[in-house]
Every structure is written in structure tokens, then in C-alpha cells.
Amino acid sequence: MAKKKRKTPGINGSSSADIAFMLLIFFLITTSMDTDKGLKRRLPPLAPKQQKDQPVEIRDRNIMRLLVNRADEIVISKQNQVIPVSLDKLKDVAVEFILNPNDDPNLPEKEVREIPGLGMQRVVIPGYAISLKSEIETSYQMFVSVQNELIRAYNEAWDTYAKQKFGKGFNDLTVSQQKSVTEAYPMHISEMPLSNLEKKK
Fold first, then answer.
1. 8 A C-beta contact, residue 163 and residue 174
2. What are the residues whose beta carbons fall under 8 Å from the beta carbon of 172, sequence distance 6 or more?
3. Domain ranges in the chain?
4. Most exposed of 50, 133, 144, 166 (fewest Cβ within 10 Å)?
């Protein structure tokens, strides 16, 4: 008597699409994707078309000119002098420039002006600035690192001033108190990331 061939049972594929869909959702939820990180900056409002640009003169003592060359070296250019500064010292140099605690004649001028919530205060003039220039060949990482140090400098300067006036750190202040501190020492960073600088001789 001949043996009957057994038929192989077919695989039920009706649920394959559901399984694949569930796996897709699982990997989408659990996978972390790299995202580009930028620098927080508030751009100035657009000037009216009728308004003509007027040249703004800033005294040399009121501006810190930071230059980052193609070798990722940081220098401060001041009165025909080039002063090298390391990245780990940049924050402290910037804090001293922003606050000018000892009324140094080589650092920004001070004036007495009305600060909302604090009254008349003797602070650095609002026309000071930190100018940052870099060569095209400057590495992106160094440019971002310098930016981060400048942000840290402002945070430390605001924290120092907040403790002097309110007896607590900047992050512990109310929104209006924080506005008073930033009004006293506004953030002025001028960026020119793609300028061609002269090579160091």
C-alpha cells in the first residue's frame, strides 16, 4: 500500500504586517536620533526701509575684539597689541570686561543710569560690545566653544550682580528681577564668523 505524501501546512501570513508595523513603531520610539544643536540668539528687529544706517562709533576701551585664527588660537586685539588667551581663561577675562569691577580705565566706561526695579545705578555703559571674529578655516568646535565661554561669562556676571543687589543667585530671582539684572548688563556679542583675518607674523 502506497504511503500518502504529507502536505506541509502553510504559514499564516495574515498577522505579518501587524507584527512588522508594531516593530517599526517600537524602533521609532526607542531610537534616539542626533539633532543639530545651535546657539540661542535674539536677532535685532528689522530697521524701517526709510531709516538710513548711521555709523556707530565705539571707543576702543568699550569693545573687546576676540580673534580666533585658523590654528584655533584665541587672541584679544587691543590698541595695536595682540594678547593671547587660552580657552579656559576666556570666561574670567570676559567677566572682568563685562562688569569692570575696579573701574579699570582700559575696560568699559561706567555711568549712572536708571535701572527698572533698582533705581539709579552705576553700571557699565550700554554701548559696550564683545566682537568675535574667526577665519574661514577655524574649526566649528572651537567657534562653538568660544561662544559657550562667552555665554558662561554673562551667566556668571549676572549671577554676581544679582547676589550684590538681591542677595541671591540669578536663577533664583523673579522674572522682573532677572530683567533688571540683564538691563544693567545687557548681552552684546557681535559675531563675524567668516571673515578673513591676517596671518600672524
1. no
2. 162
3. 60-192
4. 50
